[in-house]
Amino acid sequence: MKTFEEFKAKYPKLYNKLGYFECAEGWFPLIDKLSSRLEDVNNSLSDGQIEAVQVKNKFGGLRFYINSENVCAADYDMIQAFIAETESLSYMTCELCSDTIDKKNVTRYQSICQKCFNKAK
Fold first, then answer.
1. Residues 49/121, Cβ–Cβ less than 8 Å
2. What is d(CA 68, CA 96) in angstroms, rounded to the nearest whole number?
3. How far apart, in whole angstroms, are the C-alpha atoms of residue 75 and residue 22?
4. What is the rounded distance in angstroms from the CA atom of residue 96 to the CA atom of residue 36?
5. Are 22 and 57 in contact (CB under 8 A)?
């Protein structure tokens, strides 16, 4: 997927109230996988719903914040594990092109591969 609008159409419950992502397209595959998992949980919940409230780059890593009112503790723990896994993977994924990166290329503000780093010079 290339745009936030595509995410919103594919995962309507999750992105019901969010207006945009605050990160580059390189992390979209990570966000897509996480979104699929969270939308599956949403579809299985009898009470409550998971809604993304902010998706952004913070200090070179993905941050995915949710509102999960009325979600039971077991589901909440599973959701947080999915989010933590994705956020960890973001440090090893170029935010610009999705290539795998060496941790030493993570700057304070962005996780980028050597190729994208060289282009930016």
1. no
2. 29
3. 26
4. 21
5. yes
Nearest to 50 by CA among 63, 62, 37: 37
CA atoms of 108 and 103, how far apart (whole Å): 12
What does each of the 121 residues of the chain score in pLDDT, given as a tens digit?
Answer: 789 999 999 999 999 999 999 999 999 999 999 999 999 988 887 776 899 999 999 988 999 999 987 788 888 899 999 999 999 999 999 999 999 987 666 666 888 888 888 887 6
- Length reported for the chain: 121
Alpha helix (H) ranges present in the chain?
A: 4-10, 28-44, 73-90, 114-120
Which amino acid, 61? G
Q: What type of residue is 88?
A: S
CA angle 26, 29, 75 (to 5 degrees): 130
Contact 47, 17 (CB under 8 A): no
Eight-state DSSP code of residue 93: B
Q: How far is CA 83 from CA 33, 35, 88, in A?
A: 10, 10, 9
